[in-house]
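User: I'll paste a sequence; please echo it back and then give the predicted structure.

Assistant: Echoing your sequence first, then the prediction.
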Amino acid sequence: MHCGAVVNGRRRELILRVGRNFSARSFCSSSSSSSPFSEHDRFIKEIAKSQPPKHLNQLLSIFTAKGKSVVSPGAKQGLVPLTIPLVRISPGSSIALLRWPTAPPSMEMPVVEVQKHGVWFLASNVDQFIHRILLEEDVSKSGESSQEIFDAAGEAGKRLYGKGDFERSGLKDLDVYLLRKVGLFPDSLERKVIRHIENGDHVSALVAAEFYTKRGNFPGFARPFAFNAKVLLKLGRSLEAKDAARGALKSSWWTLGCKYEEIARIAEWGEEKIAQYKEKVTEEARKRDIDRGKPRAQAAFDEAGYLLNLASLEGTWDESLERVAQCYKEAGLNDIAEFVLYRD
């Protein structure tokens, strides 16, 4: 899991080893001549009811140049239902866009890695992700960097990053360059905290971990708070760690970046909490909330969130799809309901 990769201090590669090939097929059978690239644009507009990222085609071209097969955006079986798959990087892991149900119009869809129990934040948007890929390609291969990757990024890539930009910056640390020139990334911030701990600078580690959780850095994601809880526990602040873990579990469990049990243990949440969540998705619980004054739409929306949290425990996303979609429909989010249900 992601937590282990971070705690062990190993650098996380965004584009992982090539898995077996998956062929992309159109979600619209009548348009068999269309490319996988235009297919994703259409899917995002017509099914996800959102605005396609401006340079999504360039990102898909980069994946292709790296030898990976783009998958159909409707190949959502077994995945977090709010995601739009782009490419399968291993049998149990995909790179996708995340379609938040109530995202503000100005918010771009973040790029995430989807695994069995949830998602890991990769970038705030497609441009930021392309920027990082080109940077890592340049640094990892130095002067022999693959021209094919840069060609695939096209003019958009040139505007984001040019070969040699890292060397010309005078910065010696890739994470420093990422944070100053590209954007905020969980793995970079977590490595920074870990280095402070390894150097014995616990104050700086706590400050950096607190910055990680700052509102607006990673909206909607529980991972920063989960990581902060682990740091606090490691530094002997068990009471603060418990509070931080409980705060993390107030957000969507499928955004923790690790298994629920890891954070529940720090929060000192036992099996009774799971039982409480299961009770929350009963008809009696919804009726009770409404009787207490909660609007019906809000009660339905909250129930969808509880259902997704419970599904994240075992990665059983497809088992509750119909009910999650019905909740979104009752919450007045008909477009999201249809998007959640859509499968090739």
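The beta strands are 83-90, 93-98, 111-115, 118-123. The mean pLDDT is 88.
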